[in-house]
């Protein structure tokens, strides 16, 4: 990342469903986020259980940083889905 500070990344898919790919500026897939499946029952696990597959040589810390940012962007959607307040700074009155 440091050698080329103008590098762009594009995310295609639906992070809310934990199904998306991260592409570099050359449109080459460098990471993929997928929901995990229980191998014994073939049941898709919850949205908070997913795998992050990286292309060899891609910075894992950077990829996890992108996942954390995407998670924060999407936390309101998930919170509404399970019926909780997405903003922990708002106190009940």
From TrEMBL:
Pfam family, any one: LOR
Coiled-coil parts of chain: none
Family: Belongs to the LOR family.
SUPFAM superfamilies in the record: Tubby C-terminal domain-like
PANTHER family cross-referenced by the UniProt entry: PROTEIN LURP-ONE-RELATED 5, PTHR31087
Gene3D superfamilies per UniProt: LURP1-related
Span of the signal peptide: none
Protein name in the entry: Uncharacterized protein
